Amino acid sequence: MSVIQGQYDLSTGEGLLACPRCDALHVEEELAEGETARCIRCGTVLAKPRGGAFSQLIALSFTSMVLLLGAVFFPFLEISRMGFGNATSLFGVALAFADGVLLPLVLAVLAMVIGLPVLRAFLLVYTLVPLAQGSAPYRHAATAFRLSETLRPWSMAEIFVIGTSVALVKVAGLATVHLGPAFWAFCALILVNLASRGFMCQTTIWDAIEDAGQKTDGREMVEVRQP
Amino acid sequence: MSGAETGTGHRGPVMTAHRAGLLGCHSCGRVWPETRTRCARCGAVLVPPDRRRLQHVWAWWFAGLILYIPANLFPMMSTQTFAGLQGNTESTIIEGVMELIHYGNYDIAAIVFVASIVVPIAKFVAIAWLAMVAGRPATTEQAHTRLKIFEVVEFIGRWSMIDVFVVAILSALVQLGFVASIHPGPAAASFALSVAFTMLSAQSFDPRLIWRGLPLRSRTED
Lengths: 227, 222
Fold this sequence. Notes:
Number of helices of chain B: 8
Radius of gyration of chain B: 23 Å
Oligomer: heterodimer
Helix content of chain B: 40-55%
Largest interface: A-B, 81 and 79 residues
Strand content of chain A: 5-15%
Number of helices of chain A: 7
Structural class of chain B: mainly alpha
Largest sheet of chain A: 3 strands, antiparallel
Order of helices and strands of chain A: EEEEHEEHHHHEHH
Helix content of chain A: 40-55%
Number of strands of chain A: 7
């Protein structure tokens, strides 16, 4: 970055940061690990760099990929009553919508529960692996990370787990239910996602992508400019 | 004045990117001259905070509202017990909740009721209100309240998808041939689409508009 810390240019916007929620202008500054920068007006968190966040995020992304793969291939739930039994995998859950007009919902459910979480984990690894080593990001890393952020609200693994527990209560009176490994994988996935959120700081990652290859820790502090 | 020291209780006039003739990227926060159309850092399209953009919000809002009607009128799923001998019930969302109450599962009934009836309706009301008052003059307190409401709407919207997952899981699981079987109904699709459209509606709302009416006002007040 050509701008020296704390210096900014009001005509090009270099060295400045606008709060995405309220548009308040802040001056970029280095931020120490563990500090949190909030918007001066609306209090939105602008940056919260954490030590070793990149490696932690990579590790957590791999963990969630493994868990999701396990969740796909292991049995999910099994019920039995009066000698009749039925087991289902995650694909079975999605394929519940496979007949008639509901067909597109199969793809939507598969995407929201498995596809997008895996894709997001992959995109995050793709973005962060070179950055964690302090080298230049891969091609299209910015697009990859932006896509990953856009898809965030659409990856609904944790909602799926709550949905499962509601379904289990509904079924409980009807038949005996056995929880499969895939179910526990999803429960573990919630914890992994929570941990991942704690380490996530978009501003730090954007800054690292921008500083391509240069050895900066990519942190910034924010300061308001008086008109 | 340093942002870290004063925290959120800032009262005085605040310089915004818009007033400085700049454009902040909604995706990564980088600031660019107003003439730029694309952020060179993250590649997102730069959009100025403009009330005309609210058209997108309203378009998705109406799409979501229209689909919410069949989602409540058509059955969410049909349950067949003992090959239809003991009953073949088709239940809409509200009937599903009633059934849960009937069997004494009050907590689960509350979850389903909140997730598929209270939250969607509250979301329609909240988004419509935000879109109507956006860009109008407001006090700092009002703006803070509106931002909070927007954040709640944004956070909670996806949780309505619970009901769709419940139907999917039940239909996949409860296939016990003669004893009992559950099949999804057409409402599942329209409910899923309604939730998706309201999520898109909330996402296309620009929270910067909440603050548009305010800086000049607080400057004259000071």
